[in-house]
Amino acid sequence: MTNPSDMRGTDEAAQLQAHSDPAENPVIASVLNDPSLSEQDLPQGDARAIESMGRSELLRRRFLRNRSAQIGMVVFALLVLLAIFAPMFYQYGPFERDLRNALSGPSAYHWFGVNERGLDIFARTMQGLRISLVIGLGTAVLTSFLSVVVGIVAGFVSSKGRWGALADGALVNLINLFLVIPSLLLLMLFSPVLQQRSWLWMIPLLALFAWMLTARVLRAMTQQLVRTEYVEAAKFMGVHPVVTMTRHILPNIASWIIIDTTLGVSGAILGETGLSFIGFGIQYPQVSLGTVLQDYNISAPYTWIPPAAVLAALVISINLMGEALRDALDPTSGASRL
Amino acid sequence: MSDTILSVRDLTVTFPSEHGTVRAVQNLSYEVHKGEALAIVGESGSGKSVSSLAVMGLLPATASISGEIELMGRKIFTLDDKQLSELRGNTISMVFQDPLSALTPVYRVGDQIAEVVRIHHPERSAAAAQARAVELLEAVGIPEPGRRAKQYPHEFSGGMRQRAMIAMAIANEPELIIADEPTTALDVTIQAQVMELLKSAQELLGAATVLITHDMGVVAGFADRVLVMKDSRMVETGEVDEIFYRPREKYTRDLLSAVPRVDLAESEGTASVAGAALRRVAEAVEATEPAIPREERPAVLEVEDLHRVYPITKGALVRRKVGEQRAVDGISFDIREGECVALVGESGCGKTTTLMEIMQLRTPQQGVIRIGGKETGSLTRKERQALRSDVTIVFQDPMAALDPRMPIGDIIREPMRVQGYSAERMAERVEWLLKTVGLLPEHAARYPTEFSGGQRQRVGVARALACDPKLIVLDEPTSALDVTVQAGVLAMLADLKTRLGVSFLFVSHDLSVVRHISDRIAVMRQGRIVEIGATEDVFSDPQHEYSKELLAAVPIPDPVIARSRRRMVLDRAAFEGAAPEDGSTAA
Amino acid sequence: MIRFVSLRLLTYVILAFVATSFAYLLAASLMHPEEVLYPPIATQPIPPATAQMYLDVRNVNPDTPLFERYATWLGGLIRGDLGVTTGTNKSMVPVVQELATRIPISLRLVVLGTVIGTVLGVLVGMVSAVRRNSIGDRVSTFLAFVLLSLPTPVVILIVQQTNQGVMDLTGWGLPAINPINPLLAPGSWESISYQIKALVMPTIVLALFAAASYSRYMKVTTLDVLGSDYLRTARAKGLTRGRAMTKHGLRMALIPMGQYFAFAVGAAFTGSLFVELMFNWQGIGRFAVSSIGMADVNGTAGVVLYTAILTLLSATFADFLQGVLDPRIR
């Protein structure tokens, strides 16, 4: 869905990359151009260890060195552990009613308190965390898959003659159509029908309305790559288009896909929370962080602060990791300067 | 020389980066006197641009600067942004490298020129500033200046934009003009015009000029003094004749000898590295092989009456044809075995389209392309696939031509994999190919980013050679390289031609580059070949007017010859038109 | 320019039409208004003929083929009639009338929130790019990051809880729910000032979200502009840093922002849905929730049409803005 809180970039991402490309920016180039890398002698031995470290290794180092990435990873790991092991500490189940203690604050039995309906907030929050995590991860992976397929195909065929341009135009209009449709409304339409079958339907449903922006970016990036000389060279060598897509295009946008998937997790969690909050998301007998928030009571802040805090910690930790990845990938890019 | 305009003392500029501090400029000192033209020459990354931005006070905030820059007695580093602003555009002005991005795209060109007048002369009315802008445009030789002033930068051609930049730079009659690679992005003929304009503007204003360039040829006709930079340091400095005829440092000599020369035939002694290497090779060939006349050798590529027309359409929903652009307009040529044919022309002349038509291996819109006697239109899918190994291409930009995510070994293997070579054979060939292009077989596991531009271009050549091609198409293979590197790549290509007997179709915008490598030259203009003939004939006795023009425009790295070719181009009357009170200073 | 905008407008109208039709067909095939109209636990069985008539008059009879119902609805759409509401309420209010009373309430929120948020975001983004790494930049970047990591309901809860805290402490606070106080005489100064006060909190929430995402985008585009050649030229001409930025940089940085505007309005609609629910405003968002909840096919289609038109108008406005700012696409 066109989530207001979506951290992912739009069309400009590809453009931003181009701007920071040393080849296009003479000042950067003249500064970055390592004078020691001259024509006469080739890099030998340990002296050039940093250069020959390889891109993925460099990325990993940059990522691990980033303070916000460290914080994000620790918090995220803690939350995952909590989601896995919390049921061991339940004193009341997520749907077990303790009406005598209804609307009472945190206590030894109810660590986070009890809501108006007599339900234990700790158990519900932890249960919601599990559901939100599964939905977030599942949706992000599925969304990325959808957007990669549409984006790469549209970007690749757009330069392949009249029919290619036509197919690309159709895909672009499909993207625009999905962007024009108020996705929240359609989610509200579909969700109750599918929730009757299984709560896992939430994953494909959210993915169906989340792939467009990424697909647009990937299409633009692919179009740029198709115009590069190495893809042109592959064409002149007679490499099969599908092989070109997987061997030349996919690896070159892979890092972007990873970042986007990471940020997609938090986007999906936020989307699911919003939908569940207004009652169109996860239904009984499951509970998500959105449904827990639904039972808020302004005069009793403990009813909403625990699920909100867990939710915030989860989304912020994921976004921290995502942004750190973006920094690591392209330290000079616009995105990293946010 | 008279009074000093600019003096730079012990300038050092460093930038922080991930791998520690990058020293962009180290201990640079120079002086520029009134009316003098200084050229700062160096290859990419030598720090020449950074030093000039330091003079303007325009370096990014991350740069740390030490040393001293004095402009007309004022110390630049002690001034704040406001005081510097009063100097910039008035006392000191700058012409930037890329005229496409240097003008704000959303304002009219006239307004942008008027702006520089109004900033420093707020007492002038907006209308007067506009009128001045039109005069300035006329002075720098833009036709219909009144109409052009109302246009936006994207409606100007590259050369016109650079003229507008120069108009802006001379608007307030500055004491110092800094021109940072002003002609790098332009075609040769335009380049010559812009350089002449700049020179005459400098002489008319009596302004000191600093020209920053990588091209020794440009320097020869322009500068009074030359400063050579390498790896952020000064190599040597001196009077222009001294540097050109009696260089002291080895690097300066390398730089000079690497510049290909159009004016010297092979018989005359040339110091050019590339030329020397090529001549050696040529002699070796002549010694071993009795020359078979060209007509008796089999043709590798024949192009007959090739046309490529792009329709110009309008309308988003209903596309209707409003005209057509004849990118290639009926050209014919052929390449014989072991021959190198150069296709020379300026940007937009259709040479790249011709290449793409050949590389597609499809039926052209009109005309015939034959490779090894086979017509490309009649090929079956399988034959076409097989023929892909016979015709290969080397691209212009060594950065973009290699997939950054693949080790170079895999890059070279790719065409062989398509042709179904066995693993052992591929491994064997990769090793041989790397050695052939002057790289080490151990490098196969490394990624393209670990190599310099010249080395990457060698990898590109190795990939083109992978399947024993009959014809290699070279699309401006050296234009993205530094001159010293370019010479090495050219020598390697010439060597390959003789050793392996491959034919080349060498596309270039630069006549001087192809002189020593090509056997025949075809000069292209507006989709047609205006002249084709043996290299020596074209150089010594060009038939077509355009060929003569092209030859005359190529800068010659020899101050005496270059000075004799100059003309006056700044329209003095137009420039002085609105400012008669300044007439005395301008003269 | 006119050509460019009108062409875009045409594309958007087609898209909006397709989107609305799609939504109608989906709603009509997925929803079961007959179950809501006549719940199985109805005390008295209703004669089938009456039931059929009830369903026919509302154009939601599941026995009528879907495309026939669609054709009827489409015929109404051309005449400007969107059918009547269905659901538990049997009063058959025309959807157009329902929308007409609710749109002003929602639009007030969406327009105010978007405009304030956009202006604020553009300013903050530009300043934090120009004064990069200053304390102001760090704080605003951090706040935008946290804000975008929170779902809308949580932000509303934080704002409401803060207001509640202030009210408990000082006894003075903003009205928490309802845009209109029914106890005050309509048209009186008290009523108007109450309405203005009631608008404050919802607008803060929507403006915060718009400002957070806008400031991020604006910072990126501004940083790009700061590194551009033309800004360097402008400074080489003798403009100071600040004047070069305002004269040459700002306009260039705003050009790519135009496209975000269309998304911002869509996001504001989603945001206003939560705001209306949690502040108890009787706007379109609330109507959407109740329509879908009560299987009101016509009402749902009406809401979709409204949002499609809203997106369409904002996208056209964005194109127009871009055309004004950028002579290259004229």
Structure description:
- Chain A has helices at 12-20, 26-32, 55-65, 67-85, 121-157, 161-180, 183-195, 202-208, 212-227, 229-237, 241-277, 289-294, 305-329.
- With 338 residues, chain A is mainly alpha-helical.
- Chain A has one domain (65-331): MetI-like (MetI-like fold, Orthogonal Bundle).
- Chain A is elongated, with a radius of gyration of 24 Å.
- The two termini of chain A are 23 Å apart.
- By secondary structure, chain B is an alpha/beta fold.
- Chain B has 24 helices and 20 strands.
- In chain B, a hairpin with a 2-residue loop joins strand 19 (520-525) and strand 20 (528-534).
- In chain B, helix 4 (109-120) runs parallel beside helix 7, helix 8 (188-205) packs across helix 21 (545-553) and helix 17 runs parallel beside helix 18 (483-500).
- Chain B is globular, with a radius of gyration of 26 Å.
- Chain C is mainly alpha-helical and 330 residues long.
- Chain C folds into 2 domains: 1-88 and 294-330, no CATH class; 110-283, MetI-like (MetI-like fold, Orthogonal Bundle), CATH 1.10.3720.10.
- Chain C is 76% helix and 0% strand.
- Chain C contains 12 helices and no strands.
- The termini of chain C are close together.
- In chain C, 45% of the residues are buried.
- Chains A and C meet through helix 1, helix 6, helix 7, helix 11 and helix 13 of A and helix 1, helix 6, helix 7, helix 8 and helix 10 of C.
- Chain C: This is Peptide ABC transporter permease.
- Chain C: Keywords: Cell membrane, Membrane, Transmembrane, Transmembrane helix, Transport.
- Chain C: Its main location: membrane.
Rounded mean pLDDT score of chain A: 78
CATH architecture of chain A: Orthogonal Bundle
Tell me the major beta sheet of chain C. none
The secondary-structure class of chain A comes to mainly alpha
Indicate the structural class of chain C: mainly alpha
Helix content of chain C: over 70%
Rg calc of chain C: 24 Å
Number of domains as seen in the coordinates of chain A: 1
Order of helices and strands of chain C: HHHHHHHHHHHH
Unreliable runs of chain C: none
Distance between the termini of chain A: 23 Å
Share of residues in strands of chain A: under 5%
- CATH class call of the largest domain in chain C: Mainly Alpha
Q: How many individual helices of chain A?
A: 13
Q: Can you identify the CATH class of chain A?
A: Mainly Alpha
Estimate the global geometry of chain C from the Cα principal axes: globular
Give the second-level CATH assignment, the architecture of the largest domain in chain C: Orthogonal Bundle
Structurally, the number of domains of chain C stands at 2
Strand element count of chain A: 0
- Outline the biggest β-sheet of chain A: none
